[in-house]
Amino acid sequence: MSTTNQNSLLRFTTAGSVDDGKSTLIGRLLFDSKSIFEDQLEAVESSSRKKGLENMDLSLLTDGLRAEREQGITIDVAYRYFATPRRKFIIADTPGHVQYTRNMVTGASTADLALILIDARHGLVEQTHRHSFIASLLGIKHLVVCVNKMDLVDFNEDAYHTITSAYRNFSVRLNIPDIKFIPMSALLGDNVVENSANMPWYEGGTLLSHLEEIHVGSDRNLQDCRFPIQYVIRPQTDEDRDFRGYAGRVASGVFKVGDKVVALPSGMQSRIKEIFIGSDPVDRAFPPQSVTMTLESDIDLSRGDMLVRENNQPRSLQEIDAQLCWMGEERLKPAVRYIVRHGTTEVKSTIREVLYKVDINTLHRNEDDKQIGMNDIARVRLRIASPLLTDDYRRNRTTGSFILIDPGTNLTVAAGFIN
Amino acid sequence: MTQDYQLNHLDELEAESMFVLREVAAQFERPAILFSGGKDSIVVTHLAAKAFAPARIPMPLVHIDTGHNFPETLEFRDALADQLGVQLVVGSVQATIDAGRVREETGAQASRNRLQTTTLLDTIEEGKYDACIGGARRDEEKARAKERFFSHRDDFGQWDPKQQRPELWNLFNGNHMPGEHFRVFPLNNWTELDIWNYITREQIALPSLYFAHDRNCVVRNGVILAHSEHLPHREDETPETMRVRFRTLGDLTITGAIESDADTLEKITAEVAATRITERGGRVDDKRSETSMEDRKKEGYF
Ligand SMILES: Nc1nc2c(ncn2[C@@H]2O[C@H](COP(=O)(O)OP(=O)(O)OP(=O)(O)O)[C@@H](O)[C@H]2O)c(=O)[nH]1
Ligand SMILES: [Mg+2]
Question: What is the number of domains present in chain B?
């Protein structure tokens, strides 16, 4: 218990191109750390036998859908939970296939760290670039570049260094402070949980020891007080006739009983009277707690409003400058009134202008081709029907992010990052 | 614990689940909690009570009764609904059979597990529920490992795992056409051990079936099943008294018990932490084929 300190939970995601070995690596990690239950193991063994395989296909531990097992690829993100004596982990194993990039974005959006897999025979390919850029856009601060399938290049040191230097060159344009490289074979287990006897030239530790030790500075912002009202609780029973509680999840900052607060957008002022978690009163609330607050004075507040401090307020914007990661199968259409879901508000918008599209291989701005389709990343200007209470995504993931919903299909077509 | 503004793991899970539950109440017109009487749906109900306190839970508990439930489950269900002052809606598989909507399976493997889906979808349609909250967890099963928090169902109640909506951060898109609905899984990120630790911490009451007790059982294909009038009888089986408890509660014809002496929450938690078999390892319904959970989920199962 003593070594599992405040950093006890690590959420990480896999990334990289199709067939680079992501699911096999997760299977190997679970298998070698003895995190697989007996009945799961038996099921994977019998499925592998049915497929006529000699050895166990470890990717079957996460590729759970019928179509995935038939095609041998991952289609949608699978979540796995495991713990070592030193740490708890939530893994999102995501698909590499370009058609399912939206599912990779889904898995990566809640991760603190990404494993980028690269096939040692092929080196960096377009999906390596795309996934790395998406990780950077999402604000993931830690990468582990896993140069995989080293068994297929005779565990050759030069092959490894060629790839690491290519990745270093590419990654200088990413906004990711911590990048670590490990040569491995997910299939055979080299440098996953056990050190590799085949690569004596590699002096770093194994993947698991790195994951157990890495310090992930919390993303939480404790400075800027932001409490988006999610739901108003009005019991209307005899005992609680006058109770009016504002329920929500603290996005950032610390709120204390007695604090002066401002309600936005109205600008009305009040003080926090009580804070509850369930029925238990507490004296303060901080992210990511879900609490209920009551105020000293009766001001009118509803879902979509926000409680903040007077001297530190979000920007109220009706024109938004943002990066979009487009996930819809239909192209972006300037005439469509996309619904913006931002925090607890939902409001109509139009995309006024596409400023540029990012060339995923060079990370250069393409200002000539402004057609935005599936998997494109673009910088745009949006006009919102009524102002949103925003911060920069880099400073605040909750008030800085949004999704776009196509009003005709109700599908989520883009992820947005406010600049 | 809160000195340095750090939440422990259970507090973090609790906060996430409460957020999801409130999001359902805010985004949908007629949400409901699918209440099976098992520990996971009891935890969901407990979290809902916390999320909306001091008000009552603003949605009914919907129970699909196969007619093969343990009597303890039904008593517990009624008492809980009463205590929380929430409406209880019961959909009856027997009524679906009597109406000729489904045909009862026969033979020694017979079970009403799959038939429940029709009753469930009928109940959802009748109640016009647009969001049904379930207690499923991603760690339970490989198809469940693929679930979103907000999982879209078409107007036939079907799940299309190849076309799931992206789900970014904590921005849940519950927008839908009339007739479609969502299944919502606030416990997605909890493991079985988290559930037991939380039940212990919060002192949540559970049906007595979860605690070790003496019971008449038969052992079938290595699975210990409770002997009862609903279990199709086989000539070669003789029931014997065993000391058992249940890890999950479903229909009594398919829910396997385990031999155990754990009769307190602390002992159960210790037992769960040490086990090498998943809790659904004892479920006959999952053993029918490699993708039986996915197949049932596509049709609209829980
Ligand atoms: N020789 C060798 N083969 C490997 C290694 N890792 C994975 N493979 C094989 O590569 C193939 C693809 O592996 P997966 O784990 O399914 O790849 P993936 O990255 O998860 O693929 P997607 O999820 O579809 O993007 C399988 O046949 C694996 O057995 C390795 O280290 N060495
Ligand atoms: Mg895969």
Answer: 2
